[in-house]
## 1
Amino acid sequence: MRRPLITIACIAAALAVTPPAVGQTARPEPGPLTIAKQGSFFVGGRDVTSDTLSTLPNYAPSGTITVDQMYVRYQVPAGPLGIPVTLVHGCCLTGKTWETTPDGRMGWDEYFVRRGHPTYVIDQVWRGRSAANPSSINAVRAGKAPVEQLPTVFSAGHEGAWAIFRFGKTYPEVMPGLRFPLAAQAEFWKQMVPDSLASLPTPNPTVPALSDLAGRIGGTVLMSHSQSGIYPFQAATLSRRGIAGIVSIEPGACPEPTDDMAPYRDLPILVVFGDYVDAFPRWAPRLRTCRAFVAAANAAGGRAELLLLPDIGIKGNSHMLMQDDNSLEIADLLLDWIDRHAGAAR
């Protein structure tokens, strides 16, 4: 009786060192990643002259800075190319959303490249590597402006974000069958950054930057998430040039069904939601609006679809489904849709 127990203990110890992803189909080691080119650049931006750039004696308060530019990192694989995909992160996060998962698995940015798609990852304007404007903060600090003119900046705390990301209804409760790797949540929380959305104009300057980027690429699928879910739709209202399709993952908002549907006519659109949506007052109304938008877009000659993962038997996915334990299976679904719809329309 003791020998099997020792064997089981050894297996358990081995799994504790390199735990398999629960629910993720076993995949062979991918081997070296071969790319033709990679790099980074900025899109957009404007110069601002200010007398409150600094309150430090070693830096001049007056001068010109560039703001509202959007950072873009790209990788182009070697070999035959699929349609490019542009990945746009959501609230309180950066382009890290799409990179290595909190528990160390391959992120979508790498996986899409391995599947043959040139991949562009952005940091929203005033977020991550996209510069913010400190002038109004320093103006208040220097006594040149009232406190009321301070910009509004917010962060999502672990406890509040718990329900926003649908890990559970109340921190630290967990939804049954949740596929987010909660054992690695400490790494996830490190991704969270302050968000200046409330201090930016509408539409967010990220929107015209995305429109410009799509034109530069010459054809790309804009894949957005959460807060940025509406941005590709707003970019399409500016210009359809370069927008080959839209994949909006768990959008914070879809266009209203009463909006002008002309910008979306013949445009491949996929709206995706994970699990537990109807159990959360924050998310259920958003799903209803997106359903209504899809119906309105198609009635106006659109090519829109809504995919609720539990409807096809995929359950347990959180709001952060690109980091859930079945993330690559979901990536395969999205890339197959892109190849069939946006790729064919390119």
## 2
Amino acid sequence: MNYTFPGLPENLKLNDTAPSWLNKADNAWELTAAALVGLQSVPGLVILYGGMVKKKWAVNSAFMALYAFAAVLVCWVLWAHHLSFGSYMTPIMGHPNVALGVYVLGREKETYVPKADYVFYQFAFAAITVILLAGSLLGRMNFYAWMWFVPLWLTFSYTIGAYTIWGRGFLLSSKIIDFSGGYVIHLSSGVAGFTAAYWDRWGLGIGHSHDRQHFPPNNIIHMLGGAGFLWLGWTGFNGGSPMSAGTIAPLAIVNTHICTATSLLVWLSLDMLVYKKSSVIGAVQGMITGLVCITPGAGVVEPWAAAFMGVMSGSVPWYTMMVLHRRSAFFQQVDDTLGVFHTHAVAGLLGGLLSGILAKPKLLRMFYINGDKYGPGLIYGILEGPLRNSLRQMVYQVLGAAFIAVWNVVVTSLICILISRIVKLRMNEEDLMIGDDAAHGEEAYALWGDGERHPPLLRIHMTPKFRPFCKRR
């Protein structure tokens, strides 16, 4: 798109000249925020997953994240963006179209940034959702099944959640408070991951019994490095949602870090009180639940409320993961590798409900165009009124959570059944025993020589002669 001005030659191209509607500060911030969200996935979750699993699954786990990032981008620009944010077609899905072309240089509605900004920012959201879901399937799922799963789940699950809550879907009139995706991203990934792990029990297999009982991280320092990318990247995750460099963005950022730090300290304290150990893995889990919990209300609650949400996110998911999970026969039957159900589904639901309780009316009006139709938060309804509107908002929060949960259970189940008819969902027992070398012919770390592998880990393990030597973890 070129712009001409009086006194300049008509054939002169001013490619850096901005249209009148563009706010360069908003544009610069949104590009930065989108990059930060992208860095959460690549390299953030790539490193986190690669370090948080057993050594034999480091390559496969990291590669699942890398593949999903690339696959989602292609699907997003070809059809998924418009299914999520396009013109009305059905109550649950937008009109399909291609998010490529000159028109992406035009203005994104009700903002001062180009549409290309919005397309890329929302892609980063979609990508991290699928990658978070993968945390339930690490070291279990056939990689070729995962290659099918990513585009199918993005198309028939994620886009529906985004369209119904953020787009033009049937839940739009409900005015659900979901600032940055507590429901659309975290509740959906947690429920879908747990559902896929449930099918893992029947279709993928429950995994090698020793792996289920003993699954230590292979590199805690790398795990902390990935966690650092995740935490700092959340600055763009929540800070970019207003699509502007205004007053709501820094509030969302401060609230994000307050809630996260509080949640980490609460989780760590509970570990020390109950287990007499300061667990590094526990601290990372507490960090994640804090990031997830604040997401649906980051820019519409005050800092004191963010700290309270941190206390809740550091304690409630801790109880469901460390106590309820171990006591429940049902939870014990489902092999959720990294506990994504607790860190994302439970924390995301908790954040959505707390947002309905703690959202401040003034902040709702500042963030939402029709902010008067939201809330107020239940606590403000009790103190200031009207209570009827606050109770209605809580009903909407529950309605949104119920729809996202039910849809993901049903659709994820159907996708797993469909894929199982095309390719095996579960890796065979020999591959599960060996890990990365069997799945990809590669290992994370060379233990001897010039990058050479020890013979028992080579493909000769497939012959009966060498199978006895391959029974190693």
## 3
Amino acid sequence: LIHPTSNKVHIQDPASQRLTWNKPPKSVLVIKKIRDASLLQPFKDLCTFLTEAKNLMVYVEKKVLDDPAISGDEVFAAITKKFCTFREDLDDISNRVDFIICLGGDGTLLYASSLFQESVPPVMAFHLGSLGFLTPFKFDTYQSQVTQIIEGNAAIVLRSRLQVRVLKENWEKKDTVDEKGIILTNKDLETSHKAMQHQVLNEVVVDRGPSSYLSNVDLFLDGHLITTVQGDGLIVSTPTGSTAYAVAAGASMIHPNVPAIMITPICPHSLSFRPIVVPAGVELQIKLSPDARNTAWVSFDGRKRQEICHGDSITITTSCFPVPSICFRDPVNDWFESLATCLHWNVRKKQNYLSSEDEEF
């Protein structure tokens, strides 16, 4: 932005984005990592605090409460009766939740993101997992930290997501019979394509699957063929995902406030194929090359893996629905703290101080 009088360029401070409530929050979704005994007591303590002390309506996934360690707790059972439960892919909670609390590692936040295909409530993520790059809060002082969030006193970072559409060629060529035996026309299938859309927080991965041949896929940008990827595959990631699979494949790390999409080849059979960063507004399309020897496979944040055949296409754009991630301090400090603690970025043994006596030798 250029100031009308000074002609100076003003860049928005990433730390200036703050969480504010139009009215006090009334409901919260608690996401707990499944099959992790170490999270049972934190989960019970947090839910009791939210229900009894803060008088919030707590939403919990049904399979979490089905855990015998939770369902068998008679004391906690009185609390769980006040919860609202839901089932993934069956119940829509998109307009019922004011904010989200995650207990676990980075995968827990990715899972929470996948539950919301449009607008996502603010997410507060506690580090109770193995990595913790996306989970800046420690559980030791959860009561004061949750209270602060409820009061609306926190910085946020808007983590962009990718909107991904998978189009299968055989859907468009002929009528199809669904699982109930009803014939679907092309018009019906056009509508069903909307169900094949995915909101991705980290990355879309296209790989060669079980085949021993190189993957051979064409990459288009805004309708123009950019290159053919020959290797193990391709990673299309958000800035948030740049520190996940992409960085392991040799990509740079991008702060989540940067509006960009990163394209990273996986073991390309070319010495000059370096990862590239493109503007967030472009549309990418990935197809099998006409002369590809085998099919490819695609996954979305490591989930819902499926095969891509000749004639199929994957379209990727920046989503209109980012994930508002609540910061422990602010977007810049939290990010560099994660680089240092999780990836040990630029950590090395320092050289000893050189005295004047040493200089003589």
